Amino acid sequence: MSWRFIELPPQDGYHMITSFVSVADYVSRGGKDTLMLFSSKTPFVNVGVHQEVWLEVDLDYTKSHNIPVVRRDLGGGTVVITPGEHDYFIVIREDEAPRNPTELYTKYLTPIVNVLKSYGINATLRDQDIVVNGKKISGNGAMTYEKAVVITGNILMHLDIDLISKCVRVPDEKFRDKMAKDMRDWLTSLENEIGRVPSREELNKKIKEEYEKELGIKFESSSLTPEEIELWDKLAEEKKNEEWIYYRDNRHPDLKTERCVKISSAVALCHLDYKARKLIRITVKIVNKKIQEVSISGDFFIMSPKDFLDYLEDKLTGADPEKIPEIINQTFEEKKPVIFGFTKEDLNTAFQKILEKPEVQEIL
After folding, report:
1. Do 207 and 40 meet the contact criterion of CB atoms below 8 Å apart?
2. pLDDT at 99
3. Any idea where the BPL/LPL catalytic domain is (predicted)?
4. Measuring CA to CA, which residue among 350, 313, 312 is closest to residue 332?
5. Which domain-ending residue is among 217, 241, 265?
6. This prediction's pTM
């Protein structure tokens, strides 16, 4: 089987997060499976599609240092992308991809694991990430786009912990110092592991060889088609729109709280962070014993359907709180979402914990 192998020059953040969409469009229309490699020109903050920016990013710092905040179409957590990483994008036809996320990641990330092992590193796949002795060296995600499946990821070559910690929202500076220390404990890089930063050419050669060997494919060196480039530029421009960047924030402008408060005898506003396999952030406003509004965000992955979160939030709006489990279960049965990071049981548990809060109990 023949794949395209595309090496591109460094890109800005808006082009970084949209490249795979134009390629997925090409693959969906019958084009060849594609592996694309490149890196970022300058740092930017990359927010997951299911996250609220205000909860994740120190906007005062990023704005004062002209660091763009970019919302991608993929799930996962907020990451600070720097020129110190090497990025790969795998785009395949949907009918070739395992539907189970674990099988998908295992099949298409094993070559990256092997590349890292070739440097004498004890690399292993853990969920969708690649770790070295428990420290993450590669973060990855996946999504379905039309008739294609996209797997994106990176190899951390050099870490700028100071910059990363300053871009992420924290309660106070003392916590930021602790977070920077924690990052050094759970992140690593090729530089940290082998004492040098390999050239991108060296990495590309190894990546190409491992994918050919592991998947039994042959690459042909290629470039993007004019149609892909035209669509890519158009999509990158659209991603600069603040309506997109702050989409989830603007969907729930009145739910910006990290507390649980009783506002009156009939109104409560409550936020909960619940750690399932991934983090679920839920904020609920209850008025007169009805759910007036609900926000669900987090660093999980919803591969399909694309609008599942919005649909579920709308289904819950106006409902009696005791009906939450029934609505969640029915919506999962109806939409059959492909989710990595939480289950319907996790979601039910998280909502139950909110309803058990004293501030909520007092108004129910």
Report:
1. no
2. 87
3. 29-219
4. 312
5. 241
6. 0.83
